[in-house]
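Lecture notes, unit on protein representations.

Consider one protein chain, 306 amino acids long.
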Amino acid sequence: MKIVSLLASCTEIVCALGQESSLVGRSHECDYPASVEKLPACSEPKIDVAARGGEIDRQVKAVVAESLSVYRVDADRLKTLKPDVICTQDQCEVCAVSLKDVKQAVCDWTGLAPKIVSLKPERLKDVWDNIREVAEALNVPERGEQLVDSYLERIDAIVSKISQDITPKRVACIEWFDPVMVAGNWVPELVESLGAVNIGAEAGKHSPWIKLEDIAAHDPDVIVTMPCGWGIERSRQEIGDLTGHHVWSELRAVREGRVFITDGNQYFNRPGPRLVESLEILAEILYPSDFDFGHRSTAWEPWKIP
């Protein structure tokens, strides 16, 4: 079986299922495990991803306004690779190659068309169901069940350690700096499972744009940044778009030194196996005396006033 994964989280799922050797192609964003980077990339962005956050936002909105895709699929390369299975997504056309892009790329193929597995995760349950779905498509359903069970056991072990007597912390998870966006979908569930109150977004719904003044109205105890597609270093470079706002210094989390930068690209933004590690990161941030999974410095760090 030959597999092309055009979704970073699905590439991680395929590898976790023990099927990495069957991968013959990937998206330009697939970079974990590092060994997959040797595979040919079958997609590329139509925007300048090196631009500042505000400019990226303008470019994306301009492309979407014309009913165009943010990504370009290399149809010729796909055809040359002759995959039996193509993995993509139908959740967010801004985040990754979409089902529409893939269908358009293979529409003129003759002979046996590849099976297209399109994922649409909106909540944690969907992520676990997606793992089972991919496992079924790759003919390893038992391995899929084993993986999901192991992830749920790890989550339960963390959640069971949270004291029921603590005062819930109010947490704002910021997914973009300019304009400000808070993380939706599965992120509120991660926060709430740790006995905290998530600010500004609802579980199962897309991440909403929000004014920093509206976040300030809730005066969060903790702010966790996790910009979509960015690691810690890029977030450090761009966080000035957030911290330069006139209400920033008034926030309780800022005054008390509880602002954190995380690697959103590798963890929170990817609805796959490492959402378990994302929960571990949040646990370390919210309850530093109770949890230490070794993620500090590599996956998150405290924000320091320049």
